[in-house]
Amino acid sequence: MNTNGNTYTVIYSTVLVVLVAAILAFVAMSLQDKQNENVKLETISKLLGAASQVDTTFTIEEDADVLGLYADNVVAAFFVDGNGEKVQDMNTGKEDKNKIEVTTTSDLKAQNDKFKKLEEGQSELLSELRLPVYIFDIKGHKVTVIPCYGAGLWGPIWGYLALDEDGKTIDGAIFDHKGETPGLGSKIADKPFYGKFHGKTFNMTGEDMFTVAKITAITEPEHSVDAISGATITSQALGKSINLWAKYYKPYLVKAAAASQANTVSAPEEMTEAADSTFAGNTAAATNVNVEE
């Protein structure tokens, strides 16, 4: 074959491209399990990072066994639909921490895509939603962690919000992004920003449950966080994402808060009944002693 001809050049280029593509595909497949494991570890770290903010004495060291920390502190993990009904459990790793199940950003994107269709009127998708819920017990503080996901200025943004048992008070938050502007939009992942969320609440009766906006535009500070200076678009996008996800979690949050309140109310009643019973028993015993004397 004429090595200087066009035919040789085309064949050589084709074989080279196919060979390189095959090598890259093989490498990608070989590393897939490791990549998935890294994504899982990153997600678990974020979940713990949000939940742990309820107690400042709970710290996560850089070399910590996050799988073990998660398994030790998670109470339950499951999915709910758009009606707030539990539909499926996730493995919490109590028996084997290597079998922990969590949702990744690709899973969150799938739910976010359904939100968009629901907003367009496809209400039949409400029961098809699979919204992850993670419940932690951090040194006696029970918190429920829910995610949020959306489009930022240059790519996806996402995060996790830790909520009190009342279903509306934010005990902690943490966010991340794929490609927001360094020093501006990227600051959503910095503690000075996400730390502002602690103590804020969802507006359970208003149209907007939460907003992130310039301080001059905030009318309900208890349900809002000041936007990052110079990163208005990213800040507003995050606020819209939080608001949208909170909207579809609301049925579950309302039910969970009601159940928690019912348990809180019944506990003192049970303690009173037990105390009354103990008092009655002690009185009877004392009476018997007096009679015998």
Q: How many distinct folded domains?
A: 1
Strands in their spatial order, largest beta sheet: 2-1-3-4-5-6
Average pLDDT figure: 87
**Care to count the β-strands?**
8
Q: What overall form do the CA principal axes indicate?
A: globular
Radius of gyration: 26 Å
Distance from first to last alpha carbon:
123 Å
Main β-sheet: number of strands, strand sense, barrel status? Answer: 6 strands, antiparallel
Helix proportion of residues, in percent?
40-55%
| Assembly annotation | single chain
Uncertain segments are 282-293
Q: Number of helical segments?
A: 5
Strand/helix succession:
HHEEHEEEEHEEH
Characteristics of this structure?
8 strands, 6-stranded antiparallel sheet, two-stranded parallel ribbon, alpha+beta
Structure, briefly:
Helices cover 46% and strands 18% of the residues. It contains five helices and eight strands. Mean pLDDT is 87; it is low at 282-293.
What does the model show?
This protein is an alpha+beta fold. The protein has one domain (44-268). The chain is 46% helix and 18% strand. The protein contains five helices and eight strands, in the order ααββαββββαββα. A six-stranded antiparallel β-sheet has the order 2-1-3-4-5-6, with helices on both faces. Strand 5 and strand 6 (170-177) form a beta hairpin. The radius of gyration is 26 Å and the shape is globular.
